[in-house]
Amino acid sequence: MQSVSGASQPAFAGGGLAAITGTVMGMTRFFVPAAFRAQSAPRAGRGVRSVTLALSLAALTACGGGSIDVTPDPATQPVTFEGAVVKGPVAGARVCASWLVDGTADASSTVCTESGADGGYALTMPRRAAVLLVEATQGAYADETEPAVRVPLSRLRGALAFDGPESRRDLQVSALTELAVLRAQATGGLRAEPLAAAKAEVERSFGVSGIERVRPADLTRPQTSGLDETTRYGLVNAGVRGWMAERGRPAAALDAALAELAERMAAGTLHEELAAFRAGIRRVIVANPGAGLASNASAWSQAIALDFGRPPPTPVTPLLVETAGSLRYAVPWANPVIVALTGGAPLACVTNVPVGTAEDAVLAAAAATVAPFGQTAQTLVPVAACLGSGTAYTIDFPSGRIVSGDRG
């Protein structure tokens, strides 16, 4: 324990002494012998002050010079949210965060700041177990298809459900986090469960992960780590602008473009934009040679695994599988030679297909087999539709090898 030195004595002068004495006496019960009290009684005023001072100093000495270690309760401490506003880094954006109550912003909790030149921001909030909404407006960013052009930001948002012990949390604000907010609003509101489902849908569709955690790459800078999650996120985030350019839309129409992508996700038609989106990513890569990817832009754009909201493959059901494990696919025999050979039979047979196999996979095997003949395998039909009608080919799954060319 530390003793009270002469250097510490000025702290006990005047009002400081009264404060310390009151604090210590309020915390500690001291035993004072009766004989001592009796002897001190005639000098009540000065004696009591002397005893009090002595006991106070003793207590402070025992406690290490008067310091009291009080550990704050983490549940009562504020939490800092930080990240970046990126559609290209958005400089000078007004970034405001609010806790939501039943999906609506609690205005009394709102805290605002301004993003830096790199889009970075940090906001410290009173801690709550709730959904946090961060909204960025104003500011400007470089058009990813024409980097010399600055585009005013209308609005981008990000949201997360917070209920943890951490003192800080990452929350990026990008085109993809805005899409997640739009999808959550359309499927149950800005609450924890709809928001989690919306984020999963966006990440699956665009082939990225951690849209609130990972900071999208700045494509004006060299990308040296290959197609890691940061570069992938940056390319897809910028690819939204590339897709807009492919569709002849100005950069200022970002709100409308994101709303359309969200609507396509809801309708299951996002995949119709796959080719244009890949072309948009390629356009962005070429326009930003500083990323170091332009020498092979097509390969980089194709390497992005975009699922684009295709519904999950339908598994093969027993209704479509013979005991022997066969499936039938209708094949339009447009080639007159094949029509003559098959007597017009429009069906091909795929065998050895396990129950539970994705229809897409079986169809791909059939399509690869008939493609050299100028045909396409298009429609899956029940086995019963093929029985007795004859087939042109029997195709083994999954190899796609023709195992029989006999009809019947």
Shape by Cα distribution = globular
Approximately how much beta-strand content do the residues carry? Answer: 15-25%
* Fraction in helix: 25-40%
Uncertain spans: 1-33, 35-55, 57-62
Distance between the termini: 99 Å
Q: Tell me the total number of β-strands.
A: 16
CATH architecture of the domain at 74-182: Sandwich
N-to-C order of helices and strands: HHHEEEEEEEEEEEHHHHHHEHEHEEE
Output the CATH homologous superfamily of the domain at 74-182: Immunoglobulins
The secondary-structure class comes to alpha+beta
- Major sheet size, sense and barrel closure: 5 strands, antiparallel
Q: What is Rg? A: 35 Å
What is the CATH topology classification name of the domain at 74-182?
Answer: Immunoglobulin-like
Report the total helices.
Answer: 11
Supply the CATH class of the domain at 74-182: Mainly Beta
Mean pLDDT: 77
Topology, element by element:
Layout: H1 15-27, H2 34-40, H3 44-62, E1 79-86, E2 94-101, E3 104-105, E4 111-114, E5 120-125, E6 130-137, E7 140-143, E8 146-152, E9 156-162, E10 168-170, E11 173-174, H4 175-186, H5 192-206, H6 229-246, H7 254-267, H8 274-287, H9 297-303, E12 327-330, H10 336-342, E13 347-351, H11 359-370, E14 379-381, E15 394-396, E16 402-404
